Amino acid sequence: MNKTVLITGATSGIGLSCARKFAANGDRLIITGRNAERLAEIGNDLASRGTQVLTLVFDVRDREAATKCIESLPAEWQAIDVLVNNAGLALGLEPEYEGDYDDWDTMIDTNIKGLLTMTRLVVPGMVKRDSGHIINIGSVAGDAAYANGNVYCATKSAVKTITDGLRLDVANTAIRVTNLKPGLVETNFSRTRFHGDGERAASVYKGIKPLTGDDIADVAVYASNAPAHVQIAEVLILATHQGSGSVIVRK
Ligand code: NDP
Ligand code: 8X3
């Protein structure tokens, strides 16, 4: 479709799938991440298949770095059509009264404040051009808390409210705002949540066929390709044997 699509956290999981699926859709990409080497590898791979790609290395929590990167985009990359706010993480799964302060800060700074920073930097250009699309990666975790999910669930609940708020604020423009809310997706998510414990991470996906990053990216591309008068406001995407954030039937 030849749009310019900026994807945060494109070095892994859903973000990487979005990069590949939007590339296959014929779009040009600005992919961002913290791991410079991995990001360059992904950028080179996509470019070798004919996609125009720009890579930006920054941490979404670093407002100064994010601002510098977006404000110094080459002229031909400044008109961002689609912003995919994907970078995010869960850290820990324990009762709220035993939670780790640093984990809480990291989740809040990344999932809420990082997403807001990117929105604040990119959306003014969309408003000026009266055109654009913001796709935020929320979660089923934002619909209702599940046991021990407390702060992570709260950040995704904030993503829902922030997304709804933005949709109201741009309703007088042609900009569309989407909240994609995945359930169980097998990525690096659980390994990160359990601070690198691979065995515990693998147990999350035992006995159930989880979603893949590609399943979520397909919906993102669908929302982007929908006719201009169609705003896919919110989509909840669950594995077939998942009933909610806390009900998963394992066989
Ligand atoms: P991954 O861990 O596979 O990918 C997360 C991506 O976000 C990585 O590229 C990671 O980079 C990046 N990231 C994390 N923190 C930062 C930061 N501070 N600055 C820049 N990039 C950062 O997990 P997923 O693909 O599953 O997660 C993507 C999004 O999907 C998250 O927002 C998550 O909450 C959401 N989600 C995931 C679900 C799941 O079950 N997997 C379900 C519902 C929502 P790095 O490698 O450098 O850490
Ligand atoms: C990720 C899905 O259910 O592990 O947001 O919180 S869940």
Structure description:
- The protein has 251 residues and is an alpha/beta fold.
- 43% of the residues lie in helices and 14% in strands.
- The chain is built from 8 helices and 7 strands.
- It has helices at 13-24, 36-48, 63-71, 101-129, 150-169, 189-193, 198-203, 213-225; strands at residues 4-7, 28-33, 53-57, 82-85, 133-137, 176-182, 234-237.
- Strands 3-2-1-4-5-6-7 form a 7-stranded parallel sheet, sandwiched between helices.
- The longest helix is centred in the middle third of the chain and has 29 residues, at 101-129.
- The mean pLDDT is 98.
- NADPH dihydro-nicotinamide-adenine-dinucleotide phosphate (NDP) binds next to helix 1, helix 4 and helix 6.
